[in-house]
Amino acid sequence: MNRFCLICKFLSVLFLISNESRTQARQMADSLMKGHEYALAAVYYEKALFDQNQQVDTVISENFRLLTNTLLNQKIQCQKALRTFEDAWQTAQRFDLNEPNDTLQFKLRYEGALCGYLSQRYNEAYGQIQQTRFYTRDTTLTASLDVLEILTLNELERWTESKVIFARYVSRNRLTIQVDKLYDFLKKKPKNPDKAQLLSFLMPGLGQIYAGYPKEGLVSAGLQALSLGFGVYHVLNKYYLISFFSGAGLFQTFYFGGARRASLMAEETNRKRKARNSQKIRALLVENEQKKER
Amino acid sequence: MRKVIRLFLSYCKRVSFFLLFSNPLFAQQALSSDSLFIEYLLEKKYYNDVLHWTQHRQTFPYYRGLAFYNQLKLDSALHYFEQVPIHHPNYIKSKFLEGIGHTFQKRYQKADQVLSQLSTSDSLLTALRNFQLAGVALLERDTLKFVSYRQQFNGKYFAFSQEEEKLGENYRLIQQHKHKSPLLAGLMSAIVPGSGKIYAGKTGQGLITFIQNLALGLQTYEAYRRDGWKSPRFLLYSGLFTFFYVGNIWGSTLTVHIRKQEFKDKVNEQILFNMQIPIRTVFNQ
Description:
The structure holds 2 protein chains of 2 kinds. By secondary structure, chain A is an all-alpha fold. Chain A contains 14 helices and no strands. Classes of the chains: A mainly alpha, B mainly alpha.
């Protein structure tokens, strides 16, 4: 009897130890996170996940899923604080989305989409947003996806769709923003790099002016005029070799180089415009969301 | 009263038993759980997590070395591999990784020393050690040493039989490579601009240089013919021509050196690649 009692106590101690190690890692991770030691906290969350996976057979599946998702979510918060968004995205892929609770499932899917946006995987983030809209039945929840969807669509340069959602966002939040005025830039066509190149071929410097760089256009035209003048002057004075090699050689270098540069400048202008428009809309959204939180 | 004392003694016995056995047991369990966790992190390629986890655990030099090695931070990896104790189950693997780490860092003598001092009982590992030493000898261009190691190649082990052949091919390539003279290249370019570069093996560059010099030469000639040698036009073009002509001679000698270095780097890269494959196959690393 005495021996039996001893064995029972010994086994129960072992069980307590294993159970303890499972919760110990999480407690440690929580306290590290509170102390802003995010890198180590993320590893401790992974340790808690690892410990939990070791005892998968002894846990009820529902509890297992809930705890796994909670730990993963905490790990993502650490990774976001560390600004390692790509890692956060990878962690988000491990969520168990067989979650019957609508609110919880939405939270997980939203986190996935947000990590996709932050890690600049805009196409994947957009796909996640659409999936979230499809799987979440509660429309009050999906309304909060608007901000993320607008930002993602802007990055994908799908401005027309972004405008529709922004208009919906404005009416939902009863804002006094003039959407048409905000999206006024849609009337402006983006610069066509091929067109810029063609224009520079037709008239030196014109491509740069079209791309929005008039000063560079004038410099390019001036250089080409100078080299051409040098060539013509030497032909007239019967310096044919100098005219051909120096004059014509320099002229063709400036002529073709200028056209290539005009094409690159058109692309640069498009990039700048996209960043400016995106920033303008983002600033408005952030300002409004901050007001809502207050 | 007697009964109470007996019960108390029995309780004390159990508590002392628990205290005696539970602490080492717990420690052992924690250590093995840690190792398992680190292996899990390595498998998932969370190398930064491994480094954070083992930061204050000096008992894991092997895992820290492995994490640094996989992040290609070889200096740190070597520092930790050197600390792996001889009785560690992965001691031999860490020594091989240390050897290849030194090789990657072009510290061939150190690599040779680490691998030579390693005693292996297993025939596969002995053959692998011989193969690695052969690779190091070839990187040092010590052909005699390489030939002596190559004599022990037997092509018996699937993990590196192909690499043994490839290392032999690398050796043949080094033997057959013709050495070109920078002096001759310079001389050739002085006679016909660009020809030194063609001799060095850069045909395209040679042709462009020739055209460039020809164009400048013709313009200089025209300026001389029309205006005489005192004219500013002649002085400008002759200056330009001289600059390009001398630059081309110097460039040709340099091209020979560059080509030599390029060949050396290319062969070394192939040798290193051939040395790394068996390590990956044998140690699953």
